[in-house]
Specification:
This protein is mainly alpha-helical and 185 residues long. Helix content is 83%, strand content 0%. α1 runs antiparallel to α2.
Length: 185
């Protein structure tokens, strides 16, 4: 074989190898840049969602907290009128802001609303309503349901992440949260 042909083939092979390496390298850079861009978009979205949750969740938390305090400490004020007013505020909040709830929080809120509608809002006389709330097992059940909703809301906005400085920390029970805070103190 002619020396010129061999030199030409070697040069051609070098150029082809350079093109292949450049294509592979370019593809990797493009994939990396795309992942970086998607990560930045997700981060931006997460920040905006968290900001919206921080602005809206306190309203729902206040409603649930007021409900718990009434059920636990002021049962004599638990009337159909109060419950109708509470339901109206809860539905109003839900209509405006439920879009920002996580799957877990949304599920907890839905369960609580269903319990309200099916068990408490059937227009029984006030004394029967209070009697139902006086029933300790029933009261524990509804209190636990509201507490789970409150914890889900706190998890959504990262309260326990900051409190425990463990990014995987999530809790579903106030007693468990209390035990965990005692361990870290």
């Amino acid at each position: 074989m002619n020396t010129e042909v061999i030199v030409s083939l070697i040069a051609l092979f070098g150029v082809a190898l350079s093109v292949i390496v450049a294509l592979i390298s370019s593809r990797q850079v493009t994939k990396t840049e795309l992942k970086k861009h998607l990560g930045e978009q997700k981060q931006s979205y997460a920040e905006k969602l968290l900001e919206k949750r921080l602005n809206t969740y306190p309203g729902l938390y206040q409603l649930t907290s007021d409900f718990l305090k009434l059920v636990e400490y002021e049962r004599e004020k638990f009337t159909n009128h109060w419950l109708d007013d509470f339901k109206g505020q809860l539905i109003d909040w839900d209509s405006k802001y439920a879009l920002f709830l996580s799957v877990n929080s949304g599920s907890k809120l839905y369960s609580f609303r269903r319990k309200l509608v099916t068990e408490l809002l059937d227009k029984m006389p006030d004394d029967e309503l209070r009697e139902k709330i006086e029933d300790k097992p029933y009261r524990r059940e509804i209190v636990a349901q509201v507490e789970q909703l409150e914890i889900a809301l706190k998890n959504d906005i990262g309260i326990y992440v900051v409190e425990f400085s463990d990014f995987d920390k999530k809790s579903g029970d106030y007693r468990k949260v209390f035990r965990e805070t005692q361990k870290t103190s």
